[in-house]
């Protein structure tokens, strides 16, 4: 029986991420994201074990389960909101976002944390890039490729559209 591998990592995805995916060569349309979305599933893909990851310099990956994301395509702004639980603090963070063509016929969803004037946060100069593996008008799946202590694994986030409403 294999022992459980416990990994604690801070997941910072820099703009030079070279993740591969199975997404099609069709360029994603910003209008596909318009509205309010919920992260319905988070899973880890890699060696057998137990993974724990800090996402987007904000909170533990478990806190992003059932988080709400709002995307406004006409000015590429939005936010994510984490719910209060016994292990997670409630928080709302504004973002600016876009799509990035990776050069390998795939696309990434990328974003930066911003203030209420949509200026990047001074202490958070990095951005985050997630490989799009699926994007429809009602579902999105993204994959973050990372390593910890030389072992590669992916964090897969599954989003489900809950509304066409866009309230910041």
TrEMBL record:
So which residues are the signal peptide here?
A: 1-21
Pfam families listed in its UniProt record: Lipocalin_4
Q: What is this protein called?
A: Lipocalin-like protein
Keywords for this protein: Signal
**What positions does the domain Lipocalin-like occupy?**
33-141
Q: What organism is recorded for this protein?
A: Jejuia pallidilutea
């Amino acid at each position: 029986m294999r022992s459980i591998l416990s990994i604690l990592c801070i997941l910072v995805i820099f703009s030079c991420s070279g993740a591969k995916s199975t997404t099609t060569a069709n360029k994603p349309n910003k209008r596909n994201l318009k509205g309010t979305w919920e992260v319905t599933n988070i899973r880890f893909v890699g060696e057998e074990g137990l993974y724990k990851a800090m996402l987007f310099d904000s909170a533990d990956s478990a806190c992003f389960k059932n988080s709400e994301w709002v995307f406004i395509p006409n000015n590429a702004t939005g936010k994510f909101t984490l719910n209060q639980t016994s292990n997670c603090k409630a928080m709302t963070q504004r973002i600016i976002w876009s799509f990035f063509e990776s050069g390998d016929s795939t696309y990434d969803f990328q974003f930066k944390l911003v203030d209420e004037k949509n200026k990047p946060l001074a202490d958070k100069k990095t951005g985050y890039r997630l490989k799009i593996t699926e994007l429809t008008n009602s579902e999105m799946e993204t994959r973050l490729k990372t390593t910890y202590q030389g072992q590669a694994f992916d964090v897969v986030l599954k989003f489900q559209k809950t509304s066409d409403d866009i309230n910041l």
